[in-house]
Amino acid sequence: xxxxxxxLIAAFAIFAWRAAPRSTLFTLGLIGIFxxxxxxxxxxxxxxxxxxxxxxxxxxxxxxLLFGLVSYLFAPVMLLLLGxxxxxxxxxxxxxxxxxxxxxxxxxxxxxFDPASPFIGLSQRVIEASVIGWIVxxxxxLGLQKRTAAP
Length: 151
Known about the structure:
By secondary structure, the chain is an all-alpha fold. Helix content is 77%, strand content 0%.
């Protein structure tokens, strides 16, 4: 399921850039989301070895880890940028808060990201929920803005 999710996240980044008020911070944040999406697709192309904790990881497993790590490293920064960017949008204070809370969640997930931990899956899900949560919130905001602006 990683590849379809990554493709949908990349599509969101492109469509959100076209639909939303543009700024440098917002554009940089969406580039981060696009890179995050590429990481998702990369982890699908290069799946982890059986059990995801091999003693002797294959090159495919190492690529999986690299794509995942790059995605996760981008998450806190991009959510912070997006939270800052949307502060200037009309009636988007709540979306900014979602971005800041997401950045804190993603940073927390990243700080507890330890491959040896039995809770690494939880750290990963916290990062992913932070990113997906902001994407859903932004999509709702943009959808509501388009509805209220329609004649």
